[in-house]
Amino acid sequence: MDRLDRFFGISGQALDVRSRRMAVLASNIANAATPGYRARDLDFAAVLADRSRDTRLPLARTAAAHLDPAAAPAEPPLRYRLPVQGSMDGNTVELATEQVQFAETALRYRTSLAFLDARIGALKAALRGE
Q1: Number of folded domains in the chain?
Q2: Which of 59, 70, 98, 102 is most deeply packed, by most CB within 10 A?
Q3: What SS3 class is residue 8?
Q4: What is the pLDDT of residues 43-96, one digit of tens each?
């Protein structure tokens, strides 16, 4: 498994984090008219850095959460987005910002997926002896 992890790099983890971020952004968009709703976001770079740091630790020095799945957080921490212009009803979703962030994240997701597809194609070709 270690060789496959090195072959694919962090692309699989990047797909997972980008997928989670798109879900958070979609929730923001869906709640654009909900009074008091506070827009949230996932810090992609921070989550990916934490994940890559954790996977390189030897088991003997790993965090307690790795040994006890119940202690591990189910979802990465979300941060509240600060609005450029607040609204009277307390909703902090700025629809244009959320749509741009979602489109950018979706594009990066597709790019990561294309990279993984190319790596898998190369692996298949190597296995076939091409």
Answers
A1: 1
A2: 98
A3: helix
A4: 877 887 776 665 443 433 444 444 455 555 456 688 998 888 888 999 999 999
